Amino acid sequence: MRLFWWLAIVAAISLVGIVLSQRRALDPVQNLSLTATTPLASSLRDATRPVDDLFKGVIDRGDIARENRDLREQLEQLQNTLASRQDAEQRVRELEAAVGVKQARPEDKLLVANVVSDDTSGLKRMIAIDRGSKDGIDEGMVVLSRSGSLVGTISRAYDEFAWVRLITDPDSSVNAQVIAAPQPSPGGSGESPALPTPTPPPAPPVSPTPAPSTTPAASPTPSPTPIRGVADGDLKRGLLLDLLPADTSLPEGSLVTTSGLGGNYPRALLIGSVQSVEQRPQSPFTKAMVEPAANLSGLDTVLVLISFTPARLTEQ
């Protein structure tokens, strides 16, 4: 019964409040309450604003972190795409250069190989390639750069890869030759100066007989004689051309090629160029420093000359 009266009183108060609100009789009371509570609400809002800003900063920072992570992932994907494209373009250029060498040497059979490692001990000058005995590679075969210059020889062949001994390795020795450029003659052009023609005495008008020419016939220029030596690898100086004749005079820039002696290398493979010449009075030989034609420290692709059988293999 008490509950009934309680509900009836609450309903009556609610009904009276609704009627008074509809008639706007409670507006002064509402204005008074708003006037009294506004400063308190403003103070509470100012007091809680740092906390609110903190929560908003945490939420915003999380969004920014997610956006940065997404941007980094997109950048990484773009960089991977660019790196793959650049690598593919570089690979195409290397293969085009290899094709050019094959066209320049149609009688040779060349196998393209990629450089996969190098010797880091500091005591050797060797690289590893991704071709092995399964591809027909054998120890002693000649290795060229993609431009056709001499790089070295196969030192050890396994089933799926092989080690290449570079020409700058201490154990490398190549029979080489230098083609000395022909020296110009002292007269410049090589022709004898014209002799003065004496004034002939007066003669009757008869048909003159042509006089024999006094100018000597030009002799053919002798072909340059190759200067032979041995190109040895050196850890400190790179490539040293030794056993040259003592009276050898080599201009810097002279090209050094394989001589073909010994049968371990084909003839006329480019090794490099003369960088400097070392002559000592008491030494029976002249030495020359050689700059290798191939960039041995930046090899990516090499060519293995599998159609040439070195003498070291035929002797086995």
Characteristic terms for this protein:
316 residues, alpha+beta, Thrombin, subunit H, 3 helices
Can you put this structure into words, describing what you see?
- By secondary structure, the chain is α+β, with helices and mostly antiparallel strands.
- The protein has 2 domains: 78 residues; 167 residues, Thrombin, subunit H.
- The protein contains 3 helices and 12 strands.
- The strands form 2 sheets. Strands 1-2-5-4-3-12 form a 6-stranded antiparallel β-barrel. The protein has a 6-stranded antiparallel barrel with strand order 6-7-8-11-10-9.
- The protein is rod-shaped.
- The N and C termini lie far apart (123 Å).
- About 5% of the residues have low confidence.
Beta percentage is 25-35%
Q: Uncertain regions: pLDDT < 50 for 5+ in a row?
A: 185-199
Which series of helices and strands comes N to C? HHEEEEEEEEEEEEH
Mean pLDDT: 77
Query: Order of strands across the biggest sheet?
Result: 1-2-5-4-3-12
CATH topology of the largest domain: Thrombin, subunit H
Spatial separation of the terminal alpha carbons: 123 Å
Proportion of helical residues: 25-40%
Q: Number of DSSP helices?
A: 3
Structural category: alpha+beta
For the record, the CATH class of the largest domain is Mainly Beta
Biggest pleated sheet: 6 strands, antiparallel, barrel
CATH architecture of the largest domain: Beta Barrel
Number of strands: 12
